[in-house]
Amino acid sequence: MNNSNMYLEISGVVEAHPDRIALRAGNGDELSYGELDAEVARYANALCETGLRRGDRVAVQLRKSIPSLFVYLACLRAGLVYLPLNTAYRSAELDYFLRDAEPGLILVEPEQRTAMEDLAKATIGATVMTQEEVTGLAQRAAGSHEQFPTATSGPDDLAVIIYTSGTTGRSKGAMVTHDNLVSNARALTQQWKFTGDDVLLHALPIFHVHGLFVANHCALTTGACLLWHDRFDASDVARDIKRSTVLMGVPTYYVRLLGEPDFSREACCSMRLFVSGSAPLLAETHYQFEQRTGHRILERYGMSEAGMITSNPYHGERRAGTVGFPLPGVDVRVADEANKPVPNGEKGAIQIKGRNVFSGYWRMPEKTREEFTPDGWFRTGDIGLFDADGYLSIVGREKDLIITGGYNVYPKEIEQVIDELPGVIESAVIGVPDADFGEAVTAVVVATAGAQIDQATTISALKTKLAGYKVPKHVHIVEALPRNAMGKVQKKLLRERFGQ
Hints:
The protein has 500 residues and is an alpha/beta fold. 31% of the residues lie in helices and 25% in strands. It contains 15 helices and 25 strands. It has helices at 7-16, 33-49, 66-78, 91-101, 113-123, 131-140, 178-191, 209-220, 234-240, 251-258, 283-293, 365-370, 411-419, 455-463, 491-498; strands at residues 21-25, 30-32, 57-61, 81-84, 105-108, 127-130, 158-163, 173-177, 199-202, 225-228, 246-249, 273-276, 298-303, 307-311, 325-326, 330-335, 348-354, 360-361, 378-386, 392-397, 402-404, 407-409, 424-434, 438-447, 474-478. It has a 9-stranded mixed β-sheet with strand order 2-1-10-9-11-12-13-14-15. The longest helix is centred in the N-terminal third of the chain and has 17 residues, at 33-49. It is globular and about 70 Å long. 47% of the residues are buried.
């Protein structure tokens, strides 16, 4: 049996370039690929010494750190199933995840240990350890245990369970296989031209696909260096841009960088690529960034269930408001209700197929069947369209679709028009229950300080730009839109707040 373990993609670099720098911390500490491999071996041995066996789940709710990266890589190498948990999750959410995934080991910060032990006893009785304890085990394993034979994993063997954000309902555990990870890493490094000369500034959290898979895998499978930041701080990132070649971020990062006075074209002279994802990037931010730095941000499209799906081109036009073309080995179609492709320019449901697509939802076989078409395409839940040149645009979520007076309204279309109005920073459009229309189109708007924006002026302006049924019946002005940890607007919370 051939070994499809994702860690082999990294160990190949270790064998070829053991002395190359793999990790560089903010304080200047460095770790070579050989040293990284030895640390991962120690951690893999330490995890196995707790009694874990292949296929057991390891739930991890830790602050971002280099040792927490070792834990992830050690789980891959040992054939354990890594279960990242957002550090913002609280007891009620954690109770659900633990009962659902039944991990054999839970890793937490020291101050969370007592609460997590109480929770674990009430649910599954799993062992709870702090990272310091695992580090201690790894240190005791030093020397004689600096070797660890990478577990033999089939392509369909489970590597990670990553829970969907739950912004539109109950979270589901997406089962990500080793082959999913390997195929997506190879496609991205090919598409984005990664080499061993790159330095990737890593400021993303690592409980999410973007930071855990995309950033780590692109760097470590090509022999590049990870310039490690435990968190995003705009001034720190602006400083370290000068010694980097790639930055991956969410739109908020780029907005904040534009607010840094020292962030300039000169500061970005060593950079070759800025990547944005996890939430839509406003066209205004796209253009402002290019004016300031000379770089056009590359937007891509991905999700927990498939890693990365599409990307704007590395060479060629990067179109603001689009997410580019399907990645190598990934098929994308925009389909109607009968799952038939629609012509370019028409909106429809985005469906995908490829080695990157997950194997299903953990312990939800019926939900898994629902989310795949009869001919095997995964329903992403996103609404999109291809333009005449084949660029894909995301225009909304199927569950965000508003049906008002019998007409279908896609929020993204209206948001784009509102965002162009003078004084508007950003907006979110939702549907709220309405006795006459079924749902009433409702806009929630963030305005600049001092802007003369209210419901009447906004509606008046939109009546000249949109069909009548698309014009919001209500407009609410707020200081900020609620977002999850990756910057996605939580429309569920807006519907709860303004649905009355």
